[in-house]
């Protein structure tokens, strides 16, 4: 039997994920140097901060978004990819952790300056277009 959660749009699930888990995600990502941690909301997988960068390195055309929350002194960058587009990666790479709505892969570490440049470009892109923000809180 399908629940109401199963029928919710992916965007609603993403906002709920951000509202309920963004602090723990941000804490995990600050220390994250070599893991791509992704969260599933229906037909999309989402990465935040370092994991978002890892996903963007693998899929350069991945959708990006920013989260501007009063709970954080900084803007969080996220990326999203359709499950159907991510399936080939999943078939060719072994997850080190897997749950129904969470998956974790070990990946090659990034150069901090490259990540910083990428992050600043994404934030600038969306701050120039305020409609790009997901405002929570």
From TrEMBL:
Q: What is this protein called?
A: Uncharacterized protein
